[in-house]
Input
Amino acid sequence: MATQGGIVFQEKVSRLLRGQNGKPVLKPNRALVLKDAVANRKPKKGEASCITEMSVLMACWKQNNFVDTLCSNEINSFYMCVEKAQADAKNKAGQSNIQGGRLPPKQATALLKRYPNLCKEI
Output
């Protein structure tokens, strides 16, 4: 009984693939295989950091005719913010190479080149 159902299913599939006049209904315009490389797209950049410190520093420069000695506190706070942002970016980059469950393009391409597709369609 199970073999009869399997045969009926195979006949139905072959009929659908044959279409009219024995020609297949779906005809791919390219080979149905994956490429051995992935497009190298850069991930989107995050938002800018230290904007408020920079604007405070520029306002101080404008008030004091761009004299650095009068705005030393603002300069130091801006540089501290930049150092902190760079350290956070390094920690974030070091923590996860996989972004949202995806491989970076370079790693995906390396894996596809290591394990290439068959040269012919299956």
